[in-house]
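User: Hey, my collaborator sent me this sequence without any context and asked if I could get a structure. I don't really work with proteins. Can you help?
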Amino acid sequence: MKIGLPKEIKENEFRVAIIPSNVRKLVDAGHQVYVEKDAGLAAGFADEMYKAAGAEIVPDEKTVFKEAELIIKVKEILPQEFGLLEERHTLFTYIHSANRRPQTEELLKSKCVAFAYEDVMDKDGHFVLLEPMSRMAGEVGLLTGVFYTFTTTGGAGKLVCGGPGIKPMKIVIFGAGNVGVSAARLAMGLNADVVLMDTDLRKLEDVLANKLPGVRTLYSNRANVEQEIKDADIVFNCVKWFPGLTIISKDMLKLMQPGSLIVDIDAEPGGAIETSQYTTHENPLFEVDGIRHIGIANLPSAVSNSASAALSNATISFIKEIADKGWKRAAMENDELCCGLDFVKGYLTFKDTSEAFGIELTDKKFVFENC
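Assistant: No problem. I've predicted the 3D structure and written it out in structure-token form, which is a compact way to encode the shape of the chain:
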């Protein structure tokens, strides 16, 4: 199969979807790989490395889409890329279509087949292509937050680990999933005073028993949240927002210490942190009522070399299966991959997006039989 690897065009997105060593796996299996010029350069993977792995370097994104049948990306299809997808294409990337109506309409209009990384799920309910980036988001978010408490970055000027006779920084983390536990592990490694909060007591029990026995855990309700944020130096939101969820409302900011910092790793504007908005690596900070906020939506991009390797190593077996078998057989024979099949030849097969936009949902059995 002809596989295309375009350069990411989203602002501050430095990752690349396939690293050269995994391109070699595809080439060795008999597939052709077309890589856009400099697609991996920002992540530390030069064109020469892709050439050595057997890829063909092409001059621009349009050529990638023209030559390839299977398109592998990191981020969603942006408006600048509308019109490049055709019915003959299969797309594999992070899509998050329930939050992006224009992209949803474009994917349906193109009649391409699209698999979403974030919806590939194993039999135990683990989102196997989301988790590597989730863990990295927690770790990068923690390091970013600590950096922006330095006096030199406009912060309160406290040392995260404290010192003899000096209290360590208090860090409050919402969410005991992959993101929150990763952030908590790193924070504890820096000797911070860490409070991990969640509404799922089983998750908190697992953290204490198996992952971070030294962390302080607390049930997440409004009373406990209000109490813990009063003397927090940094608050991290690692909870994926859903309608109706508010963990910190605007009126609760007055409880926090002036100059303290909220890092919203979910980064959903007006989400679990009511005052959140998207920020970028170039302009990460904004302030509301004296409380500094960070809402960078693609934190792993800051460590693009490591993040690209982690993502590529997680996706390569699925990419190879699609390339070896074609989209239909691959999805029918691999239940994990089938979970990520969200768009097929003009039909929407993902329930969340159907409900979000009132677009008709099509059963996957139908598309397998008719497409």
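In plain terms: The chain has 13 helices and 15 strands. You can pass these tokens on to your collaborator as they are.
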